[in-house]
Amino acid sequence: MPDPIAVANAIAAGVLLGGFYAAVALGIAIAFGLLDIPNLAHPAFVVMGAFAAWQLNSQLALDPVLAGLVMALPFFVLGLLVYRLYYVCFERRGEAQLQGLAFFFGVLFITEVTLVLTAGADYRSVTASYIGVSISVGGIVLPERMLVPAGVALAMIVLLHQFLVRSFMGRAIQAVAQDEQALRLMGVSPVRVKALAFGLATATAAVAGALLIIVQPVEPSIGRDFIGRAFAAVVLGGMGSLYGTLLASILLGITESIVSDMWNPSWAPAIAFGFLLPTLALRSGGLLGRRL
């Protein structure tokens, strides 16, 4: 019989891991879940954010989380530019499905190659007072390098949820996902709203990248490890549901952690994705449905 303390530690580690997964998936929940834009390049933007945090940490001794917040504005502008290019080349001409998917694949690989050429293929890491420190509660060990990302991810989700449900632009983002024509009749440009939403989604990548490099060292291609998990969390949680994405991310994290600790770590991704299939078979709309 498994040791109860070991099981509790695995569950706690999975919850914290899921919190980090939610930070990575947050931008996809906005771009793919709300705007139906298959942004496969988002994990590459996350890695770019990690390298930006590494630069600010190594050159200016800036805390990684603060570095992620500082880089959020430049990443927001980057998101605006990427969406404008996507809109002009594909969405405006009604070719946003297969061609748009290929476009984001291209952005993914261009970003990776650019990072390799500018920063090299070596692993990079950051220093902070909470990295390497753990808190023990009743025999359950909570590493602060996982606690901080989980806490920041939760704060981001709560703030973004409040923005989407309480502000005019947030409600416009929800409206453009449901009925663009109705938004036009109200005198609001759907293209402008989508550009702002995509910029916001890309800005979250800067913060998620800073959290990634806190959790583990990074190299340019590491973003591929999170493409499947991030999209799975968004679909499992309910397309566009931020709290659903958080819940799904935590479930995936707990599943991976328990499988890794109790059985074979190499089985963790397969079993975690296997958890996705029966859930969607029972609830095709995801755990919380397509809502915020």
Q: How would you characterize this protein structure?
A:
It is a single chain. Helices cover 73% and strands 3% of the residues. It is mainly alpha-helical. The chain has a single domain, classed as ABC transporter involved in vitamin B12 uptake, BtuC. It has a two-stranded antiparallel ribbon. Helix 2 (42-60) crosses helix 8 and helix 6 crosses helix 8 (190-215). The longest helix is centred in the N-terminal third of the chain and has 31 residues, at 4-34. The radius of gyration is 19 Å and the shape is globular. The relative contact order is 0.21.
C-alpha-based Rg, rounded? 19 Å
- Number of E-type strands: 2
Q: Would you identify the regions where 5 or more consecutive residues have pLDDT less than 50?
A: none
Largest beta sheet: strand ordering: 1-2
Task: State the CATH topology.
Answer: ABC transporter involved in vitamin B12 uptake, BtuC
Terminal-residue CA separation: 40 Å
Mean pLDDT across all amino acids: 87
Key attributes of the depicted protein:
ABC transporter involved in vitamin B12 uptake, BtuC, 3% strand, 73% helix, 292 residues, mainly alpha, 11 helices
Report a brief summary of the structure.
The chain has helices at 4-34, 42-60, 64-89, 98-119, 144-166, 168-178, 180-185, 190-215, 224-237, 242-262, 268-282, and strands spanning 134-137, 140-143.
